[in-house]
Amino acid sequence: MIDLHSHTTNSDGTWSTKELLTKAENLGLEAFSITDHDTVKSYLEIEQSKELQSIFKGDLIKGVELNCVFDGIKIEILAYNFDLHPVNEWLESYYTTEKNRNRLIEEFNDLVNICNNKKIRIENNLHYNPDKEYPVDVIYYSIVKFEENKKFFTDEQWKDKGLFFRTCTVDKNFILYRDFSKQMPTLEFFNQFIHKYNGKIFLAHLYKYQLGDYISYLDKIVEKNLIDGVEVYHSSFTNEQIKILEKYCANNGLLMSGGSDCHGERKKERKLGIGYGNLNINKEIIKQWNI
To answer: Per residue in 244-266, is it b (16+ CB within 10 Å) or e — as a string?
Structure first.
């Protein structure tokens, strides 16, 4: 069993690097990757600590989950087995505290302007704290306070903040859609950047993006040769979705990856190694990576 998608307190997980490594070892994972959002701090911690290096006995594969944009849609990619220090240097310079705050404030202001222009009612002088809140969350909770706004959304979007967020970031026809390309790198950039530092790129959790036609979107990425593989196995995927992606990778010469997307006690029902209980990823998929 392997797990190539997990998060620590260095991004939005609740377990430290030490705790996550210990849980991976106790679970008996054969291969493991920490893929924090836009940071590789866990690997720097491991590099600097003999204690951390001694915990996990399986294959530890360097990883990171990167936010980016392709075709005007915000997606995530998983990068693996890259040269650590040059990648860390770029991430540390691009995702500074000040730059991150400015991006979040810009996103919030854009969403407020969209609401005003589209006559979606929100609270006057809505307050936003970029150090504690996500812009879409604040806008969502304000929108649903006013029943008159229901006409702009489906019942699912109205009731489910997670679905609302994904729709907001990927559906160009959604009333609150905005282009994230002014805030984050493109997939084309990361294709060149990660390959420059000897890594491999996988599209993360395709079926979470609330796309109308998932395979057509994937086709656009593959036609431009922008990824090495696809995250075929994920906690949220059905068996049918997994089979579709397995066949797609086989037909298109793509590598496969997979993981629980474990966040510790946050989303604690999504367990390391087994996801919601439906995962048992075979280490054989890594042999094709030639690492």
So the answer is: bbeebbeeeebbbbbbbbbbbee
> How far is 121 from 177, CA to CA, in rounded Å?
16
| Residues 174 and 160 grouped into a single domain | yes
Q: Judge if 86 and 199 occupy the same domain.
A: yes
Q: Could you list the pLDDT tens digit for every one of the 291 residues in the chain?
A: 999 999 999 998 999 999 999 999 999 999 999 999 999 999 999 999 999 999 999 999 999 999 999 998 899 999 999 999 999 999 999 999 899 899 999 999 999 999 999 999 999 989 999 998 889 999 999 999 999 999 999 999 999 998 898 888 778 889 998 888 878 999 999 999 999 999 999 999 999 987 889 999 999 999 999 999 999 999 999 999 999 999 999 999 999 999 999 999 988 899 999 999 989 999 999 999 987
C-alpha 79/C-alpha 83 separation (Å) is 11
Find, among 80, 71, 78, the residue nearest to 224 by Cα.
71
Residue 234's domain comprises: 2-96+185-287
pTM, rounded to two decimals: 0.90
Report the first-to-last Cα separation within the chain, whole angstroms.
18
Please state the domain count of the chain: 2
Neighbours of 58 (CB within 10 A): 17
